[in-house]
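Service request form, structural biology core

Requester: graduate student, group of Dr. S.
Request type: structure prediction, single chain
Budget code: on file
Notes: please return the result as structure tokens.

Sequence provided:
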Amino acid sequence: MSRLGTRLLSLVGLHSDFHEMTLRQRVWMSQTPLVITVGLLCIIYASLLPEIMGRPQFQAGLMLVLLISVAAAVVPWGRLWHPSYWILPILDFAAIGVLYQGGFGLAMGIYLLSVFPVFWLAWSRVSAAGALLLSFVGPLIIVWYPVFSSPEPTTGQRLAAPILGPLVTLAAAFTVVVIRRDMDSRQAALAHKDQLLGDALFQSTERSQLLDVVLNAIDVGVLVVGPDGSAVHKNERMRVLDDRIRPTDMEHTQEQDLLFFGSDRTTALRREERPVVRALKGEAFQDVLMWAGRPGDLMALSCSASILRNENGFNGAVITFNDVTALMDALRARDDFVSSVSHELRTPLTSIIGYLDLAQEEAEDTGLSGTIPHAVEVAQRNSERLLSLVSDLLAAASGSVALDPRPCSGEEMISAGLRSALPRAAAAGVHLSADCAPGLTVHGDPRRLAQVLDNLLSNAIKYSPDGGTVTVRAWREPGEAILQVQDAGMGMSEEDQRELFTKFFRTGAVRRAGIPGAGLGLAITKNIVEAHGGSISLTSAPGKGSTFTVRIPQPAQTPSSTDGPAPAEEIEIAGAASPSE
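Core staff response, request fulfilled:
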């Protein structure tokens, strides 16, 4: 409603919109414009045309307008038959006719007051056809009454002279009916949209409450940040974590103030390493381990982030913080236990192997025959295998790899690895093939890199129960050396691939096939590769074999280095690589 309309409503003691009023209030409001206009006419006529105020017919018209207005204000129209208030605009036509007759010859245009009951009838929702009929007939009676009541003869000219007024009121009524119907349809559409909006708001509120309950029920801190990095939502667990990783002397902090540390638990994470900053750069990540909290109350957090996007691009991020301190403590306890047991086993095993060597030498010197030399050989072979397993356990438990990097020949390393794996490949019916760039030089620890190749070849042969071909490739690309071991063996599912480099993990297919192993080979291989600053990846599918790719960063290329794979050596026997040992 406009400001003027609001002020007019205030003047008559009404403070609501028209559609919110009671029927009696609306009736009174519809009568008010006529009352106000007639009152202004009386003031003007009393000042400028006093003789009109003395005419009995004019006075009767004023009295009739007053009585109709009182009835509009007093009668409880809401309790009566709804269209009954139409009697008022019809009586207004009569009152205006009396006023017009009383002012005939002195004041012109009094019949124009009929536009007020015309608007009233046309705006009502009782009957559009009835409103149009009365909007023409009422003014027509007003302007024709003086013609018929005059002693002069009634002619077509006298009847046509005032006909424009009723036609105008009819057109005005038609316009108001059209506008009212259009507004009704608009109001119905708005009401429908309001209903839809209300339903959507209700559903949104319910979902928001449900989401809050779900988020507060999980034992993971959830932080939602907007495009500017400000916190949009935190669940209860996140608020608890906030209190633990905030400095004691700060109540309100930014992310750079929070106590996040690296794997050594003492070095604060740089700004670009912190989870919110990484997420604001559009980086999605999973299970990033960091330490957080005050000294003496450190906890391990596994952090993940998912990016929110809309039609405009980046729209924030959802970051989760999972307290994995208990898990890290359990892993450390397991590694400590494995390391302790392995150390205790290593000393007697070394002694056993030494004495078995002496026994075997003495049996050879004395020419001893029978089952004893064979039993000593079996015992020595199994003792060495057990010592190798203990060494693997120690390496896996320590998690650290000592390196002695230097330039080494890729061809020699692959040739030695293939010769070492040749007996196992022959026993398994596996064909070994090499494809190494000539003159390839790799900068790294030759002993550790040979261990990586041995582990991959051992897996390839072990997990190719039906034979096949194992191919070893090596070449140089800008800034890195690449070693690849490909087989056509058992392969593995995507679910198994996600856990493949975890210590002690063995796939279900391997366990069902009864293939021996401790599940440490690939974990150790990954540690060695990462100690070189490199990476190891896998491409595999069940029944289609596996391809392991190792990338080792290299210094600037030397003249002896060669880019791209090229045939270098071919060894007749074969193998396959697949699930972890």
